[in-house]
Amino acid sequence: MEFLMALMVGALVSAAVYLMLARDVLRFLFGLVLVSNAANLLIFASGGLTPEAPPLVPEGLKAPPPDVANALPQALVLTAIVIGFGLFAFALILIYRSYQTMGTLDSDRMRLAEPEGRD
Amino acid sequence: MTSLIVRAATRVLVGLLLVFSIFMLLRGHNEPGGGFIGGLIGATGFILYAIAHGCAAARGALRADPRSIAVAGLGVALLAGVAGLLAGDAIFTGQWLFLGGAEGEKGLPLSTILLFDLGVYLVVLGAVLTIVFALEEEV
Amino acid sequence: MAATQTDSRALTRPAGLISVAVPLALFGWFLQFLPEIAAGGTVVYRIDWVPSLEVGLGVLLDGLSLTFALLITGIGALVTLYSTSYLGGHRDYGRFVCYILAFMGGMLGLVLSDNLLSLFVFWEVTTISSYLLIGFDADRGTARRNALQALLVTATGGLAFLAGIILIGMAAGTFDISGIGEPLASHPLYLPIFLLVVAGAFTKSAQVPFHFWLPNAMAAPTPVSAYLHSATMVKGGVYLLARMNPSLGGTDPWFWTLVLFGGVTAVFASVMALRQTDIKQVLAYTTLMALGTLIMFIGVGTEYAVQAAMAFLVVHSLYKAALFLMIGVVDHGTGTRDARVLRGLGRAMPVTMVAAMLAALSMAGVPPLFGFVGKEFLYKAALDLDVGRLWVTGCAFAASALMFAAAGIVAWRPFMGKPADTPTAPHEGPWPMLAGPLVLALLGLALGIMPDLAEPLVRPATAAVLGVAAKVDLYLFRTVNAAFVLSLLTFAAGFALYLSHARLRAGLSRTPKLFDPGWDRLMDLVAAGSTALTGAIQTGRLRRYIFVTFATLAAVLSVALWRAEVTLAAPDFDDLRAKHWSVLIFIMAGALLTAFTRSRMTAVAALGVVGIGVALIFIMFGAPDVAITQLLIEVLQVVLFAVAMLKLPHLGRDMNTRPRAWDAVLALAIGGLTATILIAVMATPLDLRLTAFFEAASVPLAHGRNIVNVILVDFRALDTFGEIAVVAVAALGAWAVLRGTRGARP
């Protein structure tokens, strides 16, 4: 499964980078979502893959059974997902707002900070 | 979006979702769940309500401004952390009180941990609703 | 230039009072150390500041630093007293007081630091505060330009000095000046250390070819010039070389570099002094001459030479501050500083005249003033030399003769003769402006008659520079010797130069200016270079920036992989089931569809497919909490997209959406690299100690059976708190973007 995992992360990253290099900032946003997913998977997979044993301690015991999944990357990924959503929402609203202000989603034409004419 | 069936169904559904979200929050320490998940479920409930009845109604049902909820959540979480400090431990050290606890019986566990998780719940709920309501009202 | 009205009431205002009281109190405080230091003692005191970097706020008070400290605070008090009148009515007087006190503090720190790193910090404090002082009249373009020039030249030198300090730390194993035991002359790093330290000293003390900033710094208000160019700022380099003499001095490169550059500066500057028509500029160049002389004699390094340099240091500080302050009075009283115009001021400004004459006689080296003592000792030290006697004596002689003439131009001619027309009728200045020049000039006279009084300062200072105890015996006159004869010759030559100075000036003014225009050309070149560079890099196209960023990432990852020499095991497909393959297909198809679809709704749906696929993986590998969170987020994401899409245009409208080959290559490269790294990471054994702790402690310590949640809200609660704070801030920020800027259309 490790190989398939790497394949998926690689595919997600490739698609994300390709999208982030587009002129359309909405595509950039799609790329951002994909790269968040890829990063989460990457962190998750780096912690080792243990099939179907959530890190829970059964009622009455003091410690979990020996082969439960690694809890640490799960905790990291859980907050990363929520923060990733915060980032996504903020970026979406920024894009929405800049479309209202500048009338375009073409990053080449969003030139408030560095006006055209110098290059 | 404003069909009668949807509106009628959401009334029931939203209530269920909110109860479920609290349930997820409370059981989070021992089973899958917790403040993040509970907050997200709660937010989903209110969003559903907003879709069916409009944002103004959803805001009314929520009573408080979602921004205030988010900030209040941060305050609650911080309070839970400071409590550890007051007890002489490092900041954010959990403090436990087992109400009615006896030999071999835990009783009702109350803790700053639960308070902290409640803070997380409120932040997530408030933050998500802030964004969604603002965007919906803008469009 | 000094279009500032005087206002003596400033002395009674808090700013004025503080500006005088602080240096005065410090002067008194330092004075109490005089007996101990004169007896050959040193005071070392240290506070640890940044122990890990070995930076201590060490204080080293010996003869050298005490001499400087007394000059800094004493002249400082007179200058600030003077400023209460000269600048008291200025609208930014408070700002001036802040700057000059900051500068004074920096200067004191510089001469008192025992640690080279803290010395450097104070060195830079003086650089920055002198920049602010020189550019004090910020409304004038020349003031700003000249201040910037001084800043850039001295700060560049300062960087060299910092590099030198670091090398010294490596060579000596300590940054404490008092801790550098052995001289560093035989260390392999000696030459670079020496060159870097000298670069710092020469820029600060304005030696040729870095001298040009100093005359330009005359754009500063006169009290600032009087302070910076008599006892403080420009003496910083001299102080540094004197301080480093025990550890760096005594070598051939030291001797020849200092003697040659110092001599050239002294002679060049005193010739240039005759060229000026502005008497303040004349003084500026004579300051250069004094600095050159000091550096030359420190380079010579014999006991006699160092003693002469220390005596001359005090001499120069006294008369130069007096003369600068006097020029301010003249400027203020007449409205001009033009040497060709100023004549016959003696009757209208008698007190100023007395001060000016005394100071100028000291500068000319005429007995019985302290200047004569200083010059005599310079000559004696020069004539004593075995190596380079002719050069040092010649330079000292030429410079002294020219100085004699310059003294006449600055302080004799303006007061003598028939009164000439000046922009305003000449009148005497108020007492705070006269006190400074008069006190300093009289001090020069007193020390000239009784040179023994200076011995308690000069002797320990000489000892500190030499690193061993020194016999110092200052006297006005004992016998007719070679030095005395040379002095008489100096007067004759100087007098002749003075008589012909008008013709000399005319002749000199035809020589082209080299350094200042050269500086401007250099600055233009730098500006053009950075414009070209910025134009090439900053195209203003977001895509290109992102491309460069990702390309750099790819390069860094490749190098990292290559250096780590990863060997990848062959993929193992044995335990794969249908569900694994289906998730793979799910995610890959979603990613591909998102990347290439032209319909935004398809893209959102495809993103949802990817998200659900990821959630499935979380479920498959025992992460129910994460999976639930992921699913809920997917729902919210779709809701947000759906709402926003109502007002956003379709994908790629009026945009060129051809397939982008290079982008695809880069994307595949980064994807491939990430996958390779992940395979390598998963093949290495995990360090599970932290997880093991969490598993073992979850129930007994945290009373929770869901380990993930326990980590989030208990073990790592502080991190979680930071994370929810980020979420809240993102939400508030998004809200502000939507609502806060409503109506603010550009």
UniProtKB/TrEMBL annotation, chain A:
Keyword Transmembrane belongs to the record: yes
Membrane disposition: Multi-pass membrane protein
Residue intervals passing through the bilayer: 6-22, 29-51, 71-96
Entry keywords, A to Z: Cell membrane, Membrane, Transmembrane, Transmembrane helix
Any Gene Ontology CC annotation: plasma membrane
Subcellular location: Cell membrane
Annotated family: Belongs to the CPA3 antiporters (TC 2.A.63) subunit C family.
Protein name: Multiple resistance and pH homeostasis protein C
Source organism of this protein record: Jannaschia rubra
Automatic annotation (TrEMBL), chain B:
Species the sequence originates in: Jannaschia rubra
Domain Na+/H+ antiporter MnhB subunit-related protein span(s) in chain numbering: 5-130
Location in the cell: Cell membrane
Protein family: Belongs to the CPA3 antiporters (TC 2.A.63) subunit B family.
GO cellular component: plasma membrane
Main subcellular location of this protein, as a coarse class: membrane
Matching InterPro entries: CPA3_antiporter_subunitB (IPR050622), MnhB (IPR007182)
Keywords: Cell membrane, Membrane, Transmembrane, Transmembrane helix
Topology class, membrane: Multi-pass membrane protein
NCBIfam families: PRK12509.1 (NF009163)
Transmembrane segments: 12-29, 35-57, 69-92, 112-135
Organism superkingdom: Bacteria
Protein name: Multiple resistance and pH homeostasis protein B
Keyword Membrane: yes
Gene: mrpB
UniProtKB/TrEMBL annotation, chain C:
Any Pfam family matching the protein: MbhD
InterPro entries: CPA3_Na-H_Antiporter_A, MrpA_C/MbhD, MrpA_C/MbhE, ND/Mrp_TM, Nuo/plastoQ_OxRdtase_6_NuoJ, Proton_antipo_N
Gene Ontology biological process terms from the UniProt entry: monoatomic ion transport
Cellular localisation: Cell membrane; Membrane
Domain NADH:quinone oxidoreductase/Mrp antiporter transmembrane, first and last residues per copy: 113-394
Membrane topology, as annotated: Multi-pass membrane protein
Major localization class: membrane
Residue ranges constituting the MrpA C-terminal/MbhE domain according to the UniProt record: 660-744
Domain MrpA C-terminal/MbhD, chain residue ranges per copy: 585-649
Transmembrane segment boundaries: 15-35, 55-81, 93-111, 117-136, 148-172, 184-203, 254-275, 282-302, 308-330, 351-370, 390-412, 433-450, 482-500, 545-564, 576-596, 603-621, 627-649, 661-683, 720-738
Domain NADH-Ubiquinone oxidoreductase (complex I) chain 5 N-terminal: 51-96
A cellular component term, taken from the record's GO annotations: plasma membrane
NCBIfam families in the cross-refs: PRK12647.1
Function comment: NDH-1 shuttles electrons from NADH, via FMN and iron-sulfur (Fe-S) centers, to quinones in the respiratory chain. The immediate electron acceptor for the enzyme in this species is believed to be ubiquinone. Couples the redox reaction to proton translocation (for every two electrons transferred, four hydrogen ions are translocated across the cytoplasmic membrane), and thus conserves the redox energy in a proton gradient.
Record-given protein name: Multiple resistance and pH homeostasis protein A
Source organism: Jannaschia rubra
Gene: mrpA
